[in-house]
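Dear support,

I submitted the protein below through the web form. The confirmation email said the job was done, but the results page showed an empty box. After a refresh the structure appeared. I'm attaching both so you can tell me whether what I see now is the final result or a partial one.
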Amino acid sequence: MNIKLILGTLCITALTVFGNVSKAVNVEEAQTKTLRMVTEATFPPYEYRENGRIIGIDPDVVREIARRNGYALVIEDMPFNSIIAAVQSGKADIAASGITITEDRKKIVNFSDPYITAGQSIIISKNSTIKSAADLKGKRIGVQSGTTGDIYVAENIGEPERFDNAALVCAAISSGRLDAGVVDTAPAKEFVKRSEDIKMLPEPLTSEEYAFAINKNRTDLLEMINTTLVEMKDEGLIKHIVAKHEKNVTKDTEEIKETGFWADFKDDFHTNFVDDDRYLYLLNGFVKTIEISAGAVVLGIMIGFLVAVIRSAADQTGKLKIANLICKFYLTVIRGTPVVVQLLIIYFVIFGSVDINKVVIAIIAFGLNSGAYVAEIIRSGIMSIDKGQLEAGRSLGLSYPKTMILIILPQAFKNVLPALGNEFIVLLKETSISGYIALEDLTKGGDIIRGQTYNAFVPLMAVAIIYLTVVIFLSKLLTLLEKRLKRNE
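What the results page shows now:
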């Protein structure tokens, strides 16, 4: 096994992966000026997907604002509790996702004039004994994380259980995991229409106004949006947009039919994967997951090799002390913090003001994380090689670097290959958090389907089966590789 050949192959693969990273974005029109909007597209009728496109009250209002002012519109789907941070960091120009104005939020972003009045409502199961907000004390209450419903329940009732979106809250109520949920009124009505297991209390819990969030430094954008909102209100256009989408989601609801078990399963399969070509969310997400995983694997191996060699050289020769300290610091930080926190820091902080492809950001984040573990795996392989081989190489006149490259590293790499394979399987599954930065990977694809169909079981099971199939395939390859290595011995 030639270590130079391995490193050369890795470098070529890295260039190929980074060179073929997709740079496509969801641009509405090919214009010079671009308005970047972030939203959480599982919130009908305000934002949802239809035929692969994000639509709803908020997207339509912002589309009209962009059109009237000569902007192209780019819409990105990300978790609700990340959209304010995206605007604050400059990753987006405007957040439009049924956002309520609060004093805490006003400290970090500007808000447009309110464009609609809404509220928070209580959802319970059909057989629940809860009659009003007064009965919620001591109950298990679910909320969408980061919403005003979350804030209200935490301050006035008790600590809630937080979910990524309102659809998951309703699913938990239906399954008996929660006693009640607090959800924005308009989406709550749609969730109730689509389920026979839940209902909504008639009295809303709170009343509030929705507005768009804009970066503090974009006062010009704030003025433009407010001026256009006034025009649209005076024309009655916003009321028309609201009525259109309330009617649209109601029409979709009326098409849902209840049948027998197998017919239900067939209907669920058709609804979740065939209708509107929703299987493409999983297919495209799977491709993106493989793309991120492959890039991160290459980057992780390169970083891991470098760190392992530096640390081993420092241990064996007493040199490279400063480089060794830097490597130890890197290992401590990366292995001591969760990968999701690292991903968010790299996206919102390190590359906060840089317009860089999110796939590249994900590759960097997961590659840096994997590199720390790969480094220790390879270092353990190096240290497992008998010291006599190092001494033999030096006695033959080879320098320390040549001894490592020609004698030690090939054996070490062979010894740790199974452990490296397991690390890469773990890495594949870790990429499932890519949705936190609005990347539509495999897991996010399942979330999008769930947000459209309000069916948690079928898309989640499909995602789990795909991951399981890939892991079984990779495990089989590792087993065959281990057998071949044993035969070579």
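Response: this is the final, complete result; the empty box was a page-load delay. The radius of gyration is 27 Å.
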